[in-house]
Request: fold
Amino acid sequence: MSDTPARLLKLLSVLQSGREYTGPELAERLSISPRTVRRDIDRLRELGYPVEATIGAIGGYRLTAGKAMPPLLLDDDEAVAVAVGLRRAAADNISGIAESSARALAKLEQVLPDRLRRRVGTLQRATVPLTVGPTGAVPAPHGEVDADTLAVLAAASTKGEGLRFGYRGKQGAPGARHVEPFRLVSTGGRWYLVAYDRDREDWRSFRVDRISEPRPTGVRHPARELPAEDAAAFVAEGIAGPRARYRAVVTLFVPLAEAARRLPRGAGRLERDPDSADRCTLITGGDALDWLAVRIALLEIDLEVREPPELVEFLDAMGRRLTRRGRRRPLPPRG
Reply:
């Protein structure tokens, strides 16, 4: 291998696996001499890569953590993943993180090849983040999301092109779907595709980790009006709203405007109280009764749960348990 830069990149790629390689192993993998291996290791060290060498009959080389971070060697999927993660972090209003993420993203995009820059841009334009607080409904991560699947869904969403794909429902039964994709929604734990289901003639949100073999139809569809403020609100309503397994009706003893200000996005739907301007109604829900109870209990607003009865009973029992556990009991004297 006579191309020194390409040889150094190949050597770095091998060392980034984390294991230790002997000089002869590296020489064989790179088709070079042991002397060239030693010379290239020295070049990597000059560039700032912390390559450690062990001495002895079975000694070798490995890449260790350094004090400063030299340039990274990323494959296509890794580069896209890092760029998307930085974009999402830059959009969050977290002190010290958003600005740093934006700077890092700008540096990364300068060195991304055009094909990857377009891929990242398409995914970003098609994605709406959903971030809610303790009364919201961000689910825990579940299932792996394929990067190529995300790319296909994002491209179809931005182009307004129909999609067909296999889908595994809640009960695990596979089925086929024909949809008009609208937007992707990322919750930090899961990805959802918001789309108009052609067969069911209604809007749906699909978990991306349950989608398989998405195929663009090649047919463009006219824009439809989403029955929600945006794609994130539509997904939030599906997770914590009236379409959830448990539907909760809660009276909030604050005016509607104050409730709207204090509730996080995706907590549920607010309605005016026809009898009093000093209170309002929250319509929310969830697929798990215990998690729904915890979300409502964490809401720092005076309230009364009106339905369902099983939620009222669960909250009463939870309150009694917490009261008992919160009482201080004297420790027994030491023998």
In short: The CA atoms of residues 135 and 296 lie 6 Å apart.
